[in-house]
Specification:
The protein is mainly β. Helices cover about 10% and strands about 60% of the residues. The chain has one domain: Porin, CATH 2.40.160. A hairpin with a 6-residue loop joins β8 and β9. The chain starts with a helix and ends in a 10-residue tail after the last strand.
Length: about 290
């Protein structure tokens, strides 16, 4: 009986030591983490439409015109052409408006084509012949077409500064030029033609939404010279004068408007979209 008890005691003792060892070899499953939230990047790029209002100041770069005198060498009253320049000329400020279509290539580069109408800017100038001083008045308007490229310099608190440049042409239309001095009141027909133009821009846009932005900036435009007015007989009975050619304009313009981008919008302007992420289940590991 005692012998059997010893055997039972030994078996229980072995079992007591083995149970903790087996328990130590088995790891409890890792507690699954809570679902994490990740952010789905917003698509960038796409076509956009723009509309702008502006106010411009034009710098008149001067003008030359042809004059005619009488031959005094016995050849009769044959007009002899010469050339004179305006003493000065000033252009008043005027409004402008325009629109365009463009493409946002990525967050840092975009292009567009624009058409802007420049309302009439009044012109006041002066000419003289050494004896008489005249007063000259007119105005000009223009249609400006440009192909533009811009570099967006990054977005901070929804504001994106940018620089850009454009190249194209301007259809310049001068009204009739009225030339007045004592005893003379001439009206020269104004010139109209296409001219080469280029522009430099700088500004910033503000994200109202990921698809709609407010754009404000400055644009410098250089317009080449061309015909300003035609020849006309003098009302005083003299040989008259013309045609005249201006030397172009330097135009400074402040503009503001809206850009609406189709598709995903501009990524820097959009709030990231949260997407729930479920990690895979973790299986218990045994040694």
């Amino acid at each position: 009986m005692l012998y059997i008890s010893k055997r039972v005691f030994a078996a229980l003792l072995v079992t007591g030591f083995a149970a903790p060892a087996v328990a130590a070899d088995m790891y409890e499953p890792v507690v699954e983490p809570q679902p994490q939230v990740v952010y789905q990047p917003v698509e960038t790029g796409g076509w956009y439409l723009r509309g702008d209002l502006g106010y411009r100041w034009s710098k008149f770069r001067g003008a030359d015109y042809i004059t005619y005198g009488v031959c005094d060498a016995g050849c009769g009253p044959v007009p002899v052409p010469g050339s004179k320049s305006f003493d000065f000329g000033d252009l008043k400020g005027a409004m402008s408006f325009g629109g365009g279509v463009g493409y946002q290539v990525n967050n840092y580069f975009r292009t567009d084509v624009t058409a802007d109408y420049w309302f009439k800017s009044k012109f006041n100038g002066q000419t003289s012949d050494g004896v008489n001083v005249s007063t000259d008045t007119s105005s000009y308007s223009a249609l400006l077409l440009l192909a533009n490229a811009y570099v967006d310099l990054g977005t901070w608190h929804r504001v994106t500064p940018y620089v850009g440049a454009g190249i194209g042409g301007a259809y310049v239309k001068w009204d009739n030029l009225r030339n007045q001095f004592p005893g003379v009141d001439d009206s020269h027909k104004g010139g109209k033609e296409w001219r080469f133009a280029y522009a430099l821009m700088a500004g910033a846009s503000y994200c109202i939404t990921k698809n709609l932005q407010f754009d404000a900036g400055y644009r410098f435009t250089r317009v080449n010279g061309g015909k300003m007015f035609d020849y006309v007989d003098s009302s005083a009975g003299g040989p008259g004068a013309g045609p005249g050619y201006d030397k172009g304009f330097n135009v400074h313009e402040v503009r503001g408007g809206l850009r609406y981008q189709f598709g995903g919008g501009k990524a820097d302007c959009a709030e990231p979209e949260p997407v729930a992420y479920e990690p895979p289940p973790v299986e218990p590991v045994y040694k």
